[in-house]
Specification:
Blueprint: E1 4-10, E2 13-20, E3 23-27, H1 37-50, E4 59-61, E5 63-66, H2 73-76, E6 81-85, H3 92-102, E7 107-111, H4 118-128, E8 133-137, H5 143-150, E9 157-159, H6 166-175, E10 180-183, H7 185-188, H8 191-201, E11 205-207, H9 214-226, E12 257-259, H10 267-273, H11 278-283
Parallel strand pairs: 5-6, 6-7, 7-8, 8-9, 9-10, 10-11
Antiparallel strand pairs: 1-2, 2-3, 4-12
């Protein structure tokens, strides 16, 4: 049985939603994030044609995200954790402002997206450690450097972009390179494939989004709902950052928590964002 494809452009981003007997799946790779389009297609087909494993929890804690130079404390209220994007700089001033805004009881993590080399990462984490960091995501680009860095700093480290395959996950485990693995459903090829990465890595998983519509977010939520252990808040609170969605009831957290549920797009919104050009449709797959 084949799924029906709905080709859209939402907020300027190509999105293909698959409608099948098991539900809805999303294909929407980001050019700025490493993701094989064919692998992402498998994730969409899994959602539409097969469905996801049974959940072991009905709600998932999520983190707030600070990606800009300013901090609005109201945007962070109620979340159990906050993540700060720090880029090539160490972001000390921004991290200090966030810690001041959230107080001492909320978990605080930073994400460098692999922007630092080994020595820069060690120095930056040394400066940031005073703010009681929960962990640092992808401080360096390579797994071997991540393993070296882990032996030089006291703050826990998480891998993200450097793990894309089971071999990568097994290497992480062999090198004892990280304390956690940030995992996204589309680059992994589906919920089951993402869960297999977490299992192979031997560390807790942190399901996160690629800023998909709520259909894609539902897959990340399904992953978070089925993992045996979920000690960290997940990076799935991104629907509110979108200008537009494909449903009138987007997956927006309440008090830092998402309720586990599926998402069905609104037919009127599918029609609004539909793309009719065959060339544009072909470019999406």
């Amino acid at each position: 049985m084949r799924a029906r494809a709905h080709h859209l452009v939402v907020d300027g981003r190509p999105v293909c939603l698959l409608e099948g007997p098991a539900g809805w799946g999303e294909w929407s790779p980001l050019p700025s994030y490493p993701c094989d389009p064919d692998v992402a297609w498998r994730a969409a087909e899994e959602a539409a044609l097969v469905g996801w494993p049974a959940p072991v929890r009905t709600a998932v804690a999520v983190n707030a995200l600070v990606a800009g130079p300013t901090v609005d404390p109201d945007d962070l209220a109620g979340y159990p954790a906050v993540k700060v994007k720090v880029g090539p700089g160490d972001g000390v001033d921004l991290v200090a402002a966030v810690r001041d805004a959230i107080g001492p009881r909320v978990a605080l993590r930073v994400d460098a997206n692999g922007a630092w080399d080994l020595d820069t990462a060690a120095r930056a984490i040394g400066r940031l450690a005073r703010y009681d960091l929960e962990l640092v995501e992808q401080p360096v680009a390579r797994l071997d450097d991540l393993a070296r860095l882990r032996r030089r700093v006291a703050v826990p480290l998480a891998a993200d972009e450097c793990v894309r395959s089971l071999d990568d996950a097994r290497t992480l485990r062999a090198l004892d390179a990280a304390d956690a693995l940030v995992v996204k459903v589309q680059p992994a090829g589906g919920v089951r494939a993402a869960a297999a990465l977490v299992d192979a890595a031997g560390v807790p998983g942190i399901p996160s989004s690629m800023h998909e519509t709520s259909v894609g977010l539902a897959a990340g939520l399904a992953l978070a709902a089925m993992l045996p252990a979920l000690p960290y808040a997940c990076g799935l609170a991104t629907a509110a950052q979108r200008a537009h969605d494909v449903t009138g009831t987007p997956l927006v957290p309440e008090h830092g928590t998402l309720t586990v549920r599926s998402v069905t797009p609104d037919p009127a919104l599918l029609a609004r964002y539909a793309v009719s050009s065959p060339d544009t449709q072909a470019a999406m797959r």
